[in-house]
Structure formats: C-alpha cells, structure tokens
Amino acid sequence: MLILECPYCGVKAEETELAAGGEAHLKRYGPGSSDDEFHDYLFMRENPKGVHFERWRHANGCGKWFHAARCTMTLEVFGTYTAQTSVPTQEILDKIAAKRPGWTWREFSDGQK
Amino acid sequence: MSKAVSVLNGARFSGLATVEDAGLQGMITLRGDLGSKALKAAVKAATGAEVPAQGSISVAENGAAAWMSPDELLLLVPYEDAVAKTAEVSEALKGEHALAVNVSDARAFFRLSGEGAREVLGKVSPVDFDAAAFKPGQFRRSRLAQVAGAFWLNDDGSFCIVCFRSVGEYVFKLLSAAGHPQSKVGVY
Question: Which pTM was predicted?
C-alpha cells in the first residue's frame, strides 16, 4: 500500500484517501505551438522503472493537489511537496540523489541544479 | 417555513457503540486566509472559538471551529442561528478574499459513543484510532467506507461525525453494521 503525507494538512494518507493525477511537471503547449509539441504534451508520458514524479489529490481529505516523488519499482516514497511549483524542491532532489545515484527523469537528473 | 428535521430524525442504534443522529446542527463553511486578523475576529465573534490549529477543532461554549484545509474552516453554531451568523461573518469579512456559506441543511451530524467507538469507526475509516494517535480535539477529514466524512473526538471519548446529508442514511446504516454486537475485533 502506498502512503503519502499530504503537505497541506500533514495527514499520512493511504491510497484510498487519495486520487492519482498522473505525471507531474507537464509543460503545457497550447495555441501557437507546433503539432509535434502539442502531440507530445497530450500523449507522451514517462513510464519509468524507478524514480517517478506524480500529481496526487487528497480527495477524501483537504481536497488539495500535491506532488509526490516515488520509486515505481519499490514503492519507496522520497517525499511529497507543494503543487505550487514547476520543479521538485532541492530537498527532494537531494534525497533521491542520495538513494538512487545517477537517476534521470525527463529534464531532471542526478547532479543537476 | 416548514419544520426542519435532521436526516434520520433522531434515529439511534446500540451495539458495540451507540450511534445517534445528533439532530440539527448549524454549520457554516468559511473559506479565506486563516491567518488574517479580520477572519480570526469573525470566527471568534460567530462561535466564541479561536481559529483552530492544523488538524484540530477548537470548541467554545456555544460553538466550535474545525480545520478543514489550509484555507477552509467549518464553523459549528446553534441551528437556529446559522442564517444570522452566516450574514454576520460575511459582513465582518467584507472586502477580504473570503466566503461564508450556510451548509447546515446539506449535512448530517452523528454522535458515536461508548466503549467500542474507536473500533467501530476504525472499521470504516483508514485512520489510526489508537488512543496515542487520535486524541480528543483532533479533527480529521477522511472517508467512511465509500463516502467522504469528517469526525473529531470529544473529551468524553465520543466521536462527532459530519457527512453529506444525501449519504446520511448510508452512514448511519454503515456505523450500525460496523457496530453489530457480535462483530467485536478488539483492536483498540
């Protein structure tokens, strides 16, 4: 079972209290972008075995959206952080780097930033 | 106006714990900046209670304020006063980025008391109800089996449960089934 701590209400919520919101940190390509960019924005998703960033909503709780960084293979949770950001916090990046040296995920990777 | 009646009009079940329809309860949803002075004053004026800390409820003599989310409170006031208090709060917060709505008739209110209260609620909610983990004054929004609900623990060991009125009957039957006299698990 997946247990995530909601950064807004501090509750350690288990899976059934949460709603999954798909991949995190998507950059929206709207009007004015090329067809390829729009296609990639709509359809291309990461499907990693390892470090992954996701959006979750504390649906049966405070109702807020938040981000979570976890490992899809071991279900290890590296941490959760606010939704008001387009990049993971440095603290989370450091934590992942310590546990998964050499990790990469989209434009983020070990040692970057 | 027609006579207001609570969702199950005082229904009661006794088993591992006692489940009661706690009657009509005035409830006001208040959204806004919980740190603002005007909001704190308005909450105090309406309920007599302070703005509660994260995940808790502050109770006063004639009202209470419960922490719903970082920008939302649930104000509990006497049912008869709900309309007037909502107007008062709205008036006090004029100009602030805030919204107060009277939701009294959209909610159902139950009381769960007795020895087995923690156990009964623990069967239907994914929350740790150990005496060390869930203490009096704590307020939690979660789910009750398939529906959303919120509850807090009183000093006397009883729980107050709030849910949508539309699922009030479901919640009552759910708690009654979970409190069946022969269904003791004995975890808490």
Answer: 0.90
